[in-house]
Structure formats: C-alpha cells, structure tokens
Amino acid sequence: MPIISYCNENDFHIQREKGESHHMRKLFVPFIFVLVLLLSACGTNSTKDTTGDANASKESTSSNTDSAGASSESESGTFTYQSESGPVEVPSHPQRVVVLTRFLTGNVMALGVPLVGVDEMSKENPNFKEKLANTEAVTDESLEKIIELNPDLIIGLSDIKNVDKLKQIAPTVTYTYGKVDFLKQQLEIGKLVNKEKEAQAWVDDFDARSKKVGEEIKAKIGANATVSVIETFNKQLYVYGEKFGRGTEILYDQFGLGMPDKVKEATKKDGFFAVSNEVLKDYMGDYVIFSKNADEDNSFQNTETYKNIDAVKNNRVFEADAKAFYFNDPLSMEYQLEFFIEHFLGK
C-alpha cells in the first residue's frame, strides 16, 4: 500500500516541497557553476581587454616617446664647437658648407664634407678644379648668393667682412691664419665637421711619412744644405719664411732643412719679404723652390744676374705651379710632398 496513503495533506505538501527543493538544489548547483564560469570568462576577457588596452596604451606611449626622442635627436643634430671667438652651435653632419678662404678649402675637402661655395682662388687651384667644378664662387660680400646656397655652416678667417650678417645665415666659425701649425689646423677642422678621428689619422700618417722623407733627403743633399722658397706674385718677387705655405711647412718643419740666414732674418716679422733681382742671390739657398705664376712677369730668369746664382748654375732650382703650391691644407701638402720626393730624390 502506498506510503502516501498514510500521510496527511500537509505531510504530502511537505514531502513534495522537500522533493522539489531537493530537485531544485540539484539543478541550481550546476547553474551556479556555469554562471561562475561565464562570469569568470567575462572577467578574464575584460581583464585581458583592460590589460591589452593598458599595454597598447603603454606601447603607444613608448612608441610616441621613442618617436619624440628620435625627432628630438634629429632636430637637435648639432653640437657646441669651441671656436676662437667662443662656443658656436654647429651641425653634427654638415652637408652644405661655404668656405670663404682659400687657406681652408682643402682642409674641408680632405675630410669629404660637401661644399656649396668657395672663393675664386680655390676654384683655380689645379688640384681642386675638377672637384669644385659645380661649386659656386663666393666672397664675404656676396651675401645674397650665399643665402641662395642655403649653407648649414660657414667657415672663414678671422678678418672676413660681414661676419655678423653671415652668422644670421648659418653658423659661422672663423680662424686666425697661422695661429696654429698645419697639423693642428686640420685637427680643428676635423672637430668642427665632426670628423676628428679622420683628421687625426691623416695627421699621424702624414707626420710620420714626411719626416721619413726628410731623413732621406738630408742623407742625399747633406744635413747642412739650405733651401729657399721664392715666388712671383702681383708683379713682385718674394722670398718666404716658415709656415707660409708654398711647401715651407714641409721643408723647414717636417724635413728639418736649413733656411739661409738672410731669409730667416728678413721674413721674421711677416713671413715673407720682397726682393729685387739684383739682391736675389743673397737670399738663395743651396736649393731653391720657385713657386712660379705663369701669368706673372718672370723675365728676371733671363738675366745674367739670375743665371749666375749657384743654385741656378747647378740645376737646383725646382719650379712648381704656384696655383697648386700656395696652401698648407692636407691635399696641397700631399701634392707638395710628392713634388719634393720627385725633385730631391728622383723618385
């Protein structure tokens, strides 16, 4: 007999409620579990999204920071060069340089820095002519032309005109001619154009090579032999002392060759001295370097006075092209060294 018959209505309801309650508990537990899983998944995705957004934001910020840093570095691609007249902010890698003095053109060229403007005399140098064919001729007074060239660096000597106006066009650095020797001058230009290592390498190499050649020359012509340097310029004949281009730096400093006493005394003040053909013999050494301008009056060479000078009679006058011999930059010095090797040593 069914048990239910023994139960009253209340008992039945109670048992039914208990049974439904038990059944509901069975259904509720897995439902809660599923709900928890769903919420957990949503939470994870939300966390991932939030974290992803945060990471994306961080990456974006980092990227922007890097970009800003690169931009800042690019925009501030300059450094401070300590010039004679004080600190100057100059480009780290100059690409459009104007040189307003023939005495420094070759220094910049030797370091492979692009030139957009140079003086006329530099363009006439046979050693530079081809390389400067597309470079404009300018002076310290051709301001409009310099502006059109859009230079990022201007270099000149300390006595150039319009220096304040030039500084408004581009960073302008000037040097006093002869303040330092040719080796130190190249190092300074190397610092200026951010190529100090290259400049130092040339200085070390040339210093060693030229001194070695000097020893060979002295061994051949005698340690006490003297050398003079003469030149015709602007309808005048000159003799030159130390550190005045035309090979003097190599002959007297690098080679250690002697200079006639008369020349030493006469050139002590200015580095050069004007002489006449009549007294030229008093200034001529055992060997003579004649920096000859073909477009000058060189008729003195046809006089008996000149022909009777010992160096002339002994074929010890070596003629060089003055336009290629004026300067003391690395390119000119290399040319001069080869000239001396050929004429003194016959190599």
From TrEMBL:
Bias-annotated ranges (Polar residues): 47-66
Region feature Disordered, mapped onto this chain: 47-88
Bias (Low complexity) ranges: 67-77
Subcellular compartments: Cell envelope
PROSITE patterns: FE_B12_PBP
GO CC terms of this entry: outer membrane-bounded periplasmic space
Assigned keywords, A-Z: Signal, Transport
Domain of life: Bacteria
GO BP annotations, alphabetical order: iron coordination entity transport
Domain Fe/B12 periplasmic-binding span(s) in chain numbering: 96-347
Family per similarity comment: Belongs to the bacterial solute-binding protein 8 family.
PANTHER family according to UniProt: IRON III DICITRATE-BINDING PERIPLASMIC PROTEIN, IRON(3+)-HYDROXAMATE-BINDING PROTEIN FHUD
Record-given protein name: Iron complex transport system substrate-binding protein
